[in-house]
Amino acid sequence: MIRVTPLILAVALFMEQMDSTVIATSLPAIATDIGSDPIALKLALTAYFVALAIFIPLSGWMADRFGAKNIFRLAIFVFMLGSLACSFAFSLESFVLSRFFQGMGSSMMTPVGRLLLVRSTPRSELVSAMAWLTLPGLIAPLTGPLIGGFLTTYLSWHWIFWINIPIGIAGIILSGIFLQVPDERTPRPVDLVGFVIASIAFSGMVFGLSVISLPALPIIYGYLTIAVGVTAGVLYILHAKRTKYPLLDPALFRHRLYRSSITGGSLYRIGVGAMPFLLPLMLQIGFGLTPFESGAITFVSAIGAIMSKFVAERVFARFGFPRVLAFSAVVGGLLIATQGLFTTETPTVIIMSVLLCGGVLRSVFFTGSNALGYADVPDAETSQATAIVAVCQQLSVAFGVAVAGGILELTGRFTGGHLTVLNFQIAFFTVGVLSALAGLVYLTLPKNAGADVSGHRRYIKE
């Protein structure tokens, strides 16, 4: 069951991750068909991320109140309905609303799916289970543009939403049959005030970062909403300290390993979140490749992610979490920065080799970081822990894209408003260094941190 459970959960998560990346390639075709402008249609991407930011904090309470397995299957169904609505959209307004509804389903799938995995897996086997669960999140952003471009070019943009239906049906049926998870329910009262404040905080920050990176609106709106979001975030922390049952309890950060996992993972995810945005643009705009050629090159990172699944568990067992995570963060971040050294003269085999190694290290990092985060979290707090992790992941990815987009915008002013290879080099160097800093977080941990989860304990005894 150690592989069956994460693979079933990964079916739904792959559908979500694929959908969120495949749409970017198809925006021009969708805009033409519904009579809108591609820039304005980027509001649909923002609406999706805002829905995630609003409803992810509620996922922990929903799982505790109605059962994690029930909510997971309901989330898949809502996501499928949202996909159908997107495929039948006839205007900008209907498409944006459909993406928001789709995001509501997605907001429950990721955290509740991870919660199901943690509750159904012994901590000693969590690294192996996480290795399989993290796979879709690494493959989908790289294969999404390739699949989206193919479907849009040779079939119709509607197919990028229709392919979610059979996948979703399979996820609902398989999870109903094979997921054997204790139905743990703790019907604590819902923190409505906290939900409203948290919604303003996280949606404000995500919306602001999205506007900065995808300027479908004047950029001043991005900075204003970020300010509102940060202010609401401070207010939420003050509210949570005075509330008996806060929606998301900041007290969880008292757990050192959980706190380190959040901090290090967020830093590293800045570069990883920026890559699917930067690399295809550089290959297409800077190097003059077609979307299909670009996708064929970037796809090699997914191969690296798959390869890592066969070594991750053994590596963490032999060397422990801190050393492996520090190494993979530093070297992985430097490999992201190395992509800024690519030129039109760089052999394709060199580019693909760097991406392959980067894919291996990213997969190893996220497998270990996700498992480490639950090493010192009590079972009673796992539902809130997964919700906080999901929120932080969304914020860090949005921040990574915003940083990359902001750098391209700023440096573009010095190159006459046209993007050149130099603009992308500066962006890659910046996000790569930020990702590498995550290694410092893990170097401060004891060498035996999370040894019972990683399996490193037996090597310490030797």
Features:
single chain; 21 helices; 462 residues; globular; mainly alpha
Kindly state the percentage of residues in helix.
over 70%
**Backbone shape:** globular
Structural class: mainly alpha
Stretches with pLDDT under 50, minimum 5 residues: none
Q: How large is the count of helical segments? A: 21
What's the total count of β strands? 0
Radius of gyration (CA) equals: 21 Å
What does this entry look like structurally?
By secondary structure, the protein is mainly alpha-helical. The protein is built from 21 helices and no strands. It is globular and about 55 Å long. The mean pLDDT is 82.
Secondary structure: elements and pairs:
Layout (H helix, E strand, L loop, with lengths): L3 H31 L3 H29 L1 H20 L4 H29 L5 H8 L1 H20 L4 H4 L1 H15 L13 H22 L5 H23 L14 H31 L4 H8 L1 H9 L3 H8 L1 H18 L9 H25 L9 H31 L8 H16 L1 H6 L7 H4 L2 H5 L1
Helix pairs in contact: 1-2, 1-4, 1-5, 1-6, 1-8, 2-3, 2-4, 2-9, 2-17, 3-4, 3-8, 4-17, 5-16, 6-12, 6-13, 9-10, 9-17, 11-12, 11-16, 11-17, 11-18, 13-16, 14-15, 15-16, 15-18, 17-18
Give a quick summary of the entry.
The chain contains 21 helices and no strands.
